[in-house]
Amino acid sequence: MEDLSCCPVLCRLTPLLLLIQLLTGGSLEEFSVLGPSDPIVAVLGGDAVLSCRVFPAMNAEDMELRWFRSKFSEAVFIYQNRQEQKEEQLAGYAGRASLVRDFLSQGEAAVRIGQVQVSDNGLYTCFFRKGVFYEEASLELKVAGVGSAPEVRITGPEEDGIRVLCTASGWFPKPQVQWRDGSGEKFLAFSEAHTQDAEGLFSVEAALVVRDRSVGNVTCSVLNPVLGQEKAMAIFIPEPFFPQASPWKVAFLVSLTVLMLLVLGAGCYIRREHSIKLREMEEKRHLWQAKEEARQTKEKALQDRAELQAQLNWRKDVYLAASTWKPEASFSETSVFKGLST
């Protein structure tokens, strides 16, 4: 049976809620809040518009509207009682956040953030309340900035080639660096390091060692992955800049190669000789085992033969002893009989 003990309480609360709604001018009409499905992209120093709307469309002029970051109390902007509320607003958004009122009567509201900074990058929540009913939606703001054009310079010879350095600063988020030769082919092997300043902007330093004397131009390009914007710079590397090969170095490399071949040959020869000796030793060991087994077999046969001969000799002695004892016994018995008859 269903428990109805809470029914009197609910029956008393329902009129009370309705009375509060009527006194505050609200309604129990339900709605949902919709935000943009894709991230909002804003350029550093520009404006970002964080827009949300109610569904079904209704007048939002008398609603409480709030945009905040990770916590409800970390307000970016608050609209209540048809005016801006600044008590809970984060200090970083004071003077930069404003309400776009153009479509409030149609249920669409937006906050414009001016002078976008790196710290504005991230997730936001827009909150709409009408009376006691409220809903919220999440949206993402992606901040992007294109920094300085890359500077490319030759830093000197390195590892039989020329070391080329590319630097750029003031980018956000972390930029992507790519090196290309004169024909547009990419260099895959190069070093790259990123640093971030107090404002959150990235600087990049990429080093490439060019070993091909005929490469000519090399180009360093820096790309913003959010905006898809790229800046590039090329530099020409003259062939005389490459270190010249020393004849002594060539002779040393040839000698080293010959020495390595000799060492490898000697190692193969020693290994082969060692294998032959191991095989000969194994054959000798098998031959010795065979001889030892033959000797043991022969000794066993001689021992068995000696035991058999000893047994035959013992039986012969027993037989001879028995043959000698029987006539004497007969003679003694005859003498006894003769004595008895006398």
Low-confidence stretches: 1-15, 17-27, 328-333
Widest β-sheet, arrangement of strands: 2-10-9-4-5-6
CATH topology of the largest domain: the name is Immunoglobulin-like
Please compute the radius of gyration using only Cα atoms: 53 Å
The total beta strand count reads 18
Shape: elongated
Report mean pLDDT, rounded to a whole number: 85
CATH architecture of the largest domain: Sandwich
Q: What structural class should be given to the helix and strand makeup?
A: alpha+beta
Amino- and carboxy-terminal Cα gap = 141 Å
Question: Any idea of the CATH class of the largest domain?
Answer: Mainly Beta
CATH homologous superfamily heading of the largest domain? Immunoglobulins
How many domains, as an integer? 3
* Range of helix content: 25-40%
Element order, helices and strands?
Answer: HEEEEEEEEEEEEEEEEEEH
User: Major sheet: size, sense and barrel closure?
Assistant: 6 strands, mixed
Proportion of residues in β-strands: 25-35%
- List the total number of helices: 2
